[in-house]
Structure formats: C-alpha cells, structure tokens
Specification:
This protein has 167 residues and is of the alpha/beta class. The chain is 32% helix and 18% strand.
C-alpha cells in the first residue's frame, strides 16, 4: 500500500500526520526521546528531523536580519525577585538579556555577560541596518554605536522610562 505524500518533508517515509505530530512535540519542547515514543519513530530519526527544523528556523531568522526602520534597544535583568545586597545593575545572581525590538513586530534577544559597551556592540553588530533610527535608554554602553556607524537617539523622557507598577 502506498503511503500518502508528505508535502512538508519531501522524499520521506513519514506520513504527514506523524510529521505534524513531531512539529507539535518540537513546539512543546519535548525531547527527541519522548517524541520518538509518541510517534513510533527511532530517536535517531527524530533527532535528525529536530536538527533540520532548527536549521530552517535559523535560516528564517537570518533572513529577517538586519533590522531596518525604527528600532529600540534595551537590556534587562532577570532572576530572583529580591536578593540581599546591591539592587539594579550591580545585583548579583541576575541574568542580563539584551533585546532589539523593531517597531511593528520583530524581536531579537541575546543573553550577554554584562551590559558593557563591548558586550552590547558584539550583540548588535550585523543585526541593524546603518540607516535605522535607534531608540535607547541612554545607557553608556550604547555610546559605542557611533563607532559602528549607527546613530542612537536616547529616549530620556522620565514618563517613558518609569517602571510599571508591581502587582
């Protein structure tokens, strides 16, 4: 009996139904072992499909670069709510996440070791079109944007910079 053709994965012996199930498992962040048990495929085959999905996602993300138009850049600290000791930028035990947000949709985030000029420029380089309008919070780490050929416009309005109230 001839298997139905899989329009998403050409020349595969996996039915479209099973392949869609693998994509759901991938989206739910299931391991290849768990997805293999659910789909009835080998772990090696599921790992191969997961790798191909990751490559396609990376290709799609790279096609979105560089960001053009009006762009916002900011870094944020994530971690435990309250840690004894320093607060703000000097707090220990927090993970620093740098983000580039293109107005009307696209977002790029990266975990950086610190909020220094060197780390931020490393995350920005090649991801932003030189003709873009860049809005920042005025942090000194963004001073190096001029060296790369970008022009930041610090948004220093205190109304925009205040933190949202905590629940």
């Amino acid at each position: 009996m001839k298997q139905p053709v899989n329009k998403y994965y050409v020349r595969s012996r996996i039915s479209e139904k099973v392949f869609r199930g693998l994509i759901r498992a991938f989206a739910m962040d299931l391991t290849a072992t768990n997805a293999a048990v659910l789909s009835g495929l080998s772990v090696r085959r599921v790992n191969d499909i997961y790798l191909k999905l990751r490559h396609r996602i990376a290709q799609h993300c790279e096609a979105q670069n560089p960001f053009r138009g009006e762009i916002e850049m900011d870094e944020s600290y994530f971690g435990p709510r309250r840690v004894k000791g320093k607060r703000g930028r000097g707090a220990s035990g927090k993970t620093i996440v740098f983000g580039i947000f293109k107005r009307e949709g696209c977002v790029y985030t990266e975990i950086v070791p610190d909020a220094s000029k060197h780390s931020l420029l490393k995350a920005i380089r090649g991801r932003v079109d030189p003709g873009s309008v860049i809005h920042t919070d005025g942090w000194r780490g963004y001073d190096g944007l001029v060296d790369v050929g970008l022009t930041p416009f610090p948004n220093l309005d205190p109304v925009d910079m205040r933190e949202s109230p905590r629940p």
